[in-house]
Amino acid sequence: LKGINEGFFILLLLLTTIAFCFVLKAYYSSIFWAIILAVLFYPLKTRIRAWLGDRNALAAFLTLLVICLIVFIPLVIVTTSLAYEGNQLYQSVSQNRGNFAGDITQLIQHMPAFVQNFLERYGLTDVNTLQQKVSALAMQGSHTLANSALMIGQGTFSFTVGFGIMLYLLFFTLKDGSYLVSLLLDAVPLTQHAKHHLLLKFAAVSKATVKGTVVVAIVQGALGGIAFWFLGVEGSVLWGALMAFLSLIPAVGSAIIWAPVAIYFLVLGPVWKGLFLIAFFVVVVGLVDNFLRPLLVGKETRMPDYLVLISTLGGMELFGINGFVIGPLIAALFIACWNLLSGRQNQDNAEQIDPDFIAEGKDETEALKAKLAEQQHSDQSS
Question: How far apart are CA 309 and CA 331, in angstroms?
Fold first, then answer.
């Protein structure tokens, strides 16, 4: 009978957990980014709390304002600029400013015969059709960036609700972070060193992936946009933003944008512009990618570059834009779990969570228990 009761309870626990996950599924992006941003900015909140004399709620609120100022407001400004640039580029291509049709025809004629046959097979030699596709791609690119800059939403209302939920959860995650971690450590049925190792790995990979990827994306996008502006390429802000977005894919990302432009200049001239683009992106932007990405991502995650690449691509295939964090995170936790199982990570060499952070969580837990006991006592007295 005892075994039946335990089995039924485990089944009930499993079913309620799955049902709860389905309930949260609609806003998983909001929940996910609230947790990631809390992990990133919790040290800042701790410093602000110390400056304010241990006023935790006010420190969390001020940290939330800082996040809005340095993350969300610039993102809204950039998104607005992208929409304008995309519309301008769409108008330029659709109205054939700059003899777009003639340039494309001349470019196709300079290509090898097998390339021309391949393009003809897929109907890409028809300049009018190609012009429509390019103009639609330019507009779609700006819309895609505008829609996925923060979270993937289903319309304005859903996006607004999701964004509000993220800010709401972010505030309480910043405010009660140590308490929530304390509850998690008590609830997870693992040894102490295993729990500490996995939580530290989660925090380290989250920080490294977001900080490293965002820094590399901003640098590559800015350098690419400046290079396009210097060469007189129309829509430099849009192309720079697209390169920043595509730089989420390690190794090959921004080349998807600049390589066709370089080929265009090499074939139709001026040739020096094509040579400048190739040299600039291979040497300058390539050094940025090869230096910053391993330094900011690979070093902290302690994963080889090829694993970061595969997990990033796989994560983005499964989870969309969120996958550039989720993919490497899953890969890192996979390696951490196998290291624990094999004994490479054990009680002697595993890292420990900051004792002050643990003590802070326990203090908040004890304070909450005391508050609940006092409330129960007052209810009984009344």
Answer: 11
Residue holding tokens 């969570």?
353
Give the long-range contacts of residues 299-302, CB within 8 A, separation 24 or more: 299/208, 300/204, 300/205, 300/207, 300/208, 300/212, 301/204, 301/205, 301/208, 301/209, 301/328, 301/332, 302/332
Place of tokens 């060193």: 193
Contact 199, 353 (CB under 8 A): yes
Which comes out higher in pLDDT, residue 22 or 72?
22
264's CB contacts (< 8 A; 6+ apart) are 103, 107, 274
pLDDT at 15: 93
Sign of CA dihedral 237, 242, 248, 253: negative
Amino acid, res. 148: S
Contact 64, 167 (CB under 8 A): yes
Helices vs. strands in the chain: H and E counts, helices first: 18, 0
Per-residue pLDDT reduced to its tens digit, 185-205: 888 888 888 888 888 888 888
**How many residues belong to the chain?**
382
Would residue 65 be called left, alpha or beta, if left means φ above 0 and alpha means ψ between -120 and 50 degrees? Answer: alpha
Q: What is the DSSP string of 262-311?
A: HHHHHHHS-HHHHHHHHHIIIIIIHHHHHHHHIIIIIHHHT--HHHHHHH
- Report pTM: 0.70
| CA 346 – CA 41 distance, rounded (Å) | 29
Whether 165 and 171 have beta carbons less than 8 Å apart is answered as: no
Residues 260, 155: Cα–Cα separation, whole Å: 33
The 10s digit of each residue's pLDDT in 271-312 is 788 888 888 888 887 777 767 766 666 666 677 777 877 888
pLDDT of 154: 45
Distance separating alpha carbons of residues 181 and 125, to the nearest angstrom: 59
pLDDT bin (cut points 50, 70, 90) of residue 153 is very low
Q: Which of 264, 267, 263, 259 is nearest to 242 (CA)?
A: 259
The DSSP symbol for 191 reads -
Count CA within 13 A, CB hemisphere, residue 287: 5
Q: Which residues contact 125 (CB under 8 A, 6 or more apart)?
A: 108, 116, 119
Please tell me what DSSP assigns to residue 281.
Answer: I
Could you report the per-residue pLDDT of 304-344, keeping only the tens digit for each? 777 877 888 888 888 887 888 888 888 888 888 888 888 77
